Amino acid sequence: MTVDGRVVRGERTRTMVLDTAVALATEAGLDGLSLGQLADRLGVSKSGLFAHWRSKEELQLATVERARDQVIEQVIRPALRAPRGVRRLWALHDARMRYYGDNSLPGACFFANAEFEYNVHLGPVRDRLAESLDEWLTLVRRLAAEAVAAGELAAHTDVGQLAYEIEALGLAAALQSRLTPAQPSYQYSRQAVLDRLRALCPEPNLLLPEGSI
């Protein structure tokens, strides 16, 4: 089967544009994202972008999908290479903190910013953000449940509560890292999650020793 080079180049261009849109949305907000603003940032014509997305809402939804893909590429896939159980659950949080901490996005976390922004906005964009959050929390709960089933977290562990706590600590680190950059937010978040998991783990030595994060 022959691959059309124009299709490949077009897809690469589309991905590059959406990467820029994700970064821009963490600065100016997803609601403030527009084809004109994106064209100005890229130094291209607005009409060229209009061929890909016919409306602001289409662009916003595509940006949410690209941000989701970035999390899969940079956080979820690396974490899933860790051994199944508590180490995989820890790896997910650790990979998330590393992703935020590498400063690839001006606002640290696209979803933290967009979820706060769209908390009271009704419509398809808010709905997709809510779905993405539910997908993420479902993954965290599943990894926690696997750790319980493997005997690597206590049998009485409330996986819903644990997922909520891990998400809250990740969210706080992402937001505070930009507001108070002198504070080691990511280190605090890592240590808090590590302490929580070790307290629930019958074999805490499965996780990193204290102070090695």
Beta-strand share of residues: under 5%
Number of strands: 0
Which structural category do the helix and sheet elements fall into?
A: mainly alpha
Helix content: 55-70%
Mean pLDDT: 88
| Contiguous helical run count | 9
Q: Which stretches are poorly predicted, pLDDT < 50 over at least 5 residues?
A: 1-8
Global geometry: elongated
Give the SSE string: HHHHHHHHH
Quaternary structure of the protein: single chain
Distance N terminus to C terminus? Answer: 48 Å
* Major sheet size, sense and barrel closure: none
The radius of gyration is 19 Å
Give a description of the structure.
By secondary structure, this protein is an all-alpha fold. 69% of the residues lie in helices and 0% in strands.
